[in-house]
Amino acid sequence: MKKIEHIGIAVKNLAEANQLYSTLLNTKPYKEEAVESEGVTTSFFEVGESKIELLAATREDSAIAKYIEKRGEGIHHIAFYVDNIEDEIERLQQEGFKLLNDQPKRGADQKKIAFLHPKSAQGVLVELCEDINK
Ligand code: CMX
Q1: Phi/psi at 4 (nearest 5 deg)?
Q2: Which residues belong to any copy of the VOC domain (predicted)?
Q3: 82, 2 in Cβ contact below 8 A?
């Protein structure tokens, strides 16, 4: 794993959260992007080498809507950057981690992504990500 690529934060209202985080971090989001397959709309802020990703649900059945309903707004996942996501998925499966997808899928911000189930990572939803174009 190379670095913490981003921390994902589940929010109810993206516009309000953008304002708050713009003030908190003293910088504007560098992009907003909807990921239809995940039922989310996102915004990204740079913080040094890492990022903050704000996520708001666009559908009631999205992971973010369920998360907020059950646990409220807050830190939803931590994403690690990896050089080769296919190799890392295989390595972690062999180590006994439960992968939520065993093939990378397309995420926001030009990334291939995969998730580990929070039950296999001590209650933390872990994302692996790799740039699609590198
Ligand atoms: N962090 C920690 N624990 C979490 C969690 C999270 N983000 N989301 C759910 N859980 C916990 C639940 O609280 C529950 O715990 P208990 O059994 O102790 O109550 C357990 O995991 C199972 O949860 P569930 O409600 O039965 O299952 P869900 O239908 O909510 O699914 C999960 C949970 C993680 C499998 C699902 O959210 C998922 O597949 N996530 C991966 C995809 C995703 O999160 N996409 C959105 C982000 C996309 C992006 O970054 O672009």
Answers
A1: -75, 110
A2: 3-131
A3: yes
pLDDT single digits (tens) 23-54: 999 999 999 999 999 999 999 999 999 999 99
Question: Which CA distances in Å does 57 have to 8, 39, 61, 64, 107?
Answer: 13, 6, 9, 5, 15
The pLDDT tens digits for 61-85 are 999 999 999 999 999 999 999 999 9
| Ligand 1 centroid from CA 124, angstroms | 9
Ligand 1 interacting residues, C-beta cut-off 6 A = 8, 35, 38, 40, 42, 55, 63-64, 66-67, 70, 76-77, 100, 107-108, 115, 117-118, 123, 125
- pTM as predicted: 0.96
ipTM of the complex: 0.96
Distance 47 CA to ligand 1 centre (A): 25
